[in-house]
Specification:
Strand content: under 5%
Largest sheet: 3 strands, mixed
Number of helices: 13
Number of strands: 3
């Protein structure tokens, strides 16, 4: 009958609006972000600025220049304890999901909707790598969708270990340290391969707020974060309760040391001038270069000291009318290459070789 046909038609219309239309809209939105994600060059994920290393005549590190304070290492040269601490803290199901932890996303969406904000993260390690490597935009729902699609691309094109290696070398650990190797050497005076349980948990605890919980500035806060990671590792049965308790009693920041400082002297100026002739600015700024020189640090220091001593001696002579180096103040802006004080140069020749 006609009424039955009408009811049947309305059921189909209702089903379309309740089920089919939302599904179509979701597919359209996801397709849009998937296409957008294809526009990013994933090669940039593996491009990480690090310091150029300058070696002296004996093959020892003389200085570093340009780039970020980062020392890249392969994943096999990172302590397994740190990897366990990192996964416990940031992405428990890293080796199980395909780039997005759907359970974590569902939980975060529920909390975001309940609070009316986008405060809850729930980003997988792959998503964090995408966000930290590529210009995806601000902390919005649109950015999260784009980040998720880029993460799916990364998972298709890289292995899990490759993603993890890029992540541990890229992330920031506070105090100017990029990558786990730099952080390990700066905070503990050791290579990342030698990190113990307490140190591993501490570094993993820094990732979400590296400046706030830096062990150099806030050892108590760093200890709280470390202990949180240790508890999580214990809950996941990665460590025993006894191991967690022992690690919690380890002192914070017991053996810090600074990495090789950047030398600022005439020798490094000469190295920089030669680099400018040989390479492009981008090649220099991206870093990672090994620059071998004939610099002899002991001879260089002796030469500089001799020059300074002789010039100071001349400045003390009666009737010296030029400005003194000790009184010189560089200009607030621009380069100070018009030095008004007395300068000198020294050439040393090895009589045996000429």
């Amino acid at each position: 009958s006609l009424p039955n046909k009408r009811r049947h038609t309305w059921r189909w219309v209702l089903a379309f609006f309740v089920v089919a239309l939302p599904i179509a809209l979701i597919i359209a939105v996801l397709s849009f972000y998937a296409i957008w994600a294809q526009t990013y060059d994933l090669k940039r994920v593996g491009t990480m600025p690090e310091r150029n290393t300058v070696f002296d005549v004996d093959g020892k590190i003389y200085s570093r220049l340009a780039g970020a304070n980062r020392l890249k290492v392969p994943l096999k040269e990172v302590s397994p304890l740190f990897i366990k601490a990192l996964l416990a803290r940031e992405d428990t199901r890293f080796y199980e999901h395909g780039g997005i932890d759907w359970r974590g996303v569902a939980r975060a969406l529920y909390r975001d909707i309940a609070s009316g904000s986008a405060r809850e993260g729930a980003s997988s390690i792959t998503q964090q790598l995408a966000r930290n490597s590529l210009p995806l935009g601000g902390r919005t729902l649109s950015r999260k969708l784009l980040e998720a699609m880029v993460a799916l691309r990364l998972e298709r094109e890289l292995t899990k270990d490759q993603i993890l290696e890029l992540y541990v070398n890229r992330i920031y650990f506070g105090s100017g340290c990029y990558g786990v190797e730099t952080a390990s050497q700066s905070y503990f005076g050791k290579a990342a391969a030698k990190l113990d349980l307490s140190e591993s948990a501490l570094l993993a605890g820094l990732i979400r707020s590296p400046n706030r919980f830096s062990p150099l500035k806030n050892p108590k806060g760093a200890a709280v974060q470390r202990d949180t990671v240790l508890e999580r590792m214990k809950d996941l049965k990665e460590i025993t309760a006894a191991q967690a308790e022992r690690a919690k009693h380890e002192p914070i920041n017991s053996h810090p040391r600074r990495l090789t400082l950047v030398q600022e002297n005439y020798a490094m100026d000469a190295v920089q001038r030669d680099l400018n002739l040989l390479l492009t600015p981008d090649q220099i700024d991206n870093g990672g270069l090994f620059i071998y020189t004939t610099l002899d640090p002991a001879v260089q220091k002796a030469a500089a000291d001799a020059i300074e001593k002789q010039l100071a001696k001349i400045e003390r002579e009666p009737g010296f009318k030029h400005p003194l180096k000790s009184q010189y103040r560089p200009p607030a802006e621009g380069e100070d290459n018009a030095m008004p004080y007395l300068e000198g140069a020294l050439v040393a020749i090895d009589n045996a070789s000429g």
